[in-house]
Known about the structure:
4 domains; alpha+beta; Double Stranded RNA Binding Domain; two-stranded antiparallel sheet; 41% helix; RNA polymerase II cis-regulatory region sequence-specific DNA binding; metal-binding; Znf_C2H2_sf; 13 helices; single chain
Amino acid sequence: MGKERVSHCCVHCGKNFTKKSHLQQHQRVHTGERPYRCLQCGKDFSQQINLKTHRRIHTGEKPFRCSYCGKSFTQRCDLQRHQLIHTGEKPFYCLQCGKSFRKQSSLKEHQLIHTGEKPHHCSLCGKGFTRHSRLQHHQLVHTGEMPYKCSQCGKGFMSGHNLRRHHLIHTGEKPFYCLQCGKSFTQQNDLQRHQRVHTGEKPYYCSQCGKNFFRHSHLRQHERIHTGEKLYRCSQCGKTFTCQSSLQQHNHIHTGVKPHRCSQCGKGFISRHNLRRHQLVHTGERPYYCELCGKGFTQQIDLQRHQNLHTGEKPYSCMQCGKSFSDKRHVKSHSCVQTDNKTFTADSLGNA
Length: 352
């Protein structure tokens, strides 16, 4: 008969192990014990293998080399994850929307979009986040701390990620290329966002109205329409806004600054949107076409006004006399005088 396998049971959670050493190692999860200390920085670890891997940060050793591009890594799991970039493999699938991911952690984070769960909360303002790293980054807003400094220009950043992205400004490096159009980017997530232009993918979904968005930041901004939340307040006049960019644009009204300048005629504008609209004057472009008569317009709102002529729709009414107009501007230019018994429009007074 074969030797009977001995099972070692954890008294804390009931999990079984074939080796006593494995049980002892597991119990550190419950006790918090970290007996292995790095002599260089004092950081403690629960397992010797984790200390060994950590030491490579100090020694600079990267024993795991990618056979595709030669890039080296301190851990085998980091190499395996990196190689998925070359193979294009995304083995982790979201069962709700079918989106695939290279990392399981990325899938778990993505699934919070569907559940709406935000498990990490700020103790100062109560705001919730899907990731602990985003909570830590947010908390710097309260402290004002910018712990990551650029060695080239001294500029400070709230996160190491933002500092690394900033460094590319100095190097000019854009390592991430779009295979469809050849456009290059400083960051992989910028490339991924750009690729949605080609695929039409809008993975961020509003649970209130069903609208989809290219970017998660656009979804968050949109959700404030439903909640009525306006986080950004103008210090000059007290007006509040749903997004920071709207506040920054509004501030130009007080300062008189017009940072967006037309390269053709030098005219300045408060917003980039207004500049782009103005530039159509120079190009002659009319991107908005009426399907009924083919007439072109520089702005979508002008097309909508024009379409009211075809439909006969007059959605704008005078509050005094009830007269309807196809164009909101005509309501403003229309004037009427109301007495106790009659209402006279400017036209009827002129013909009297």
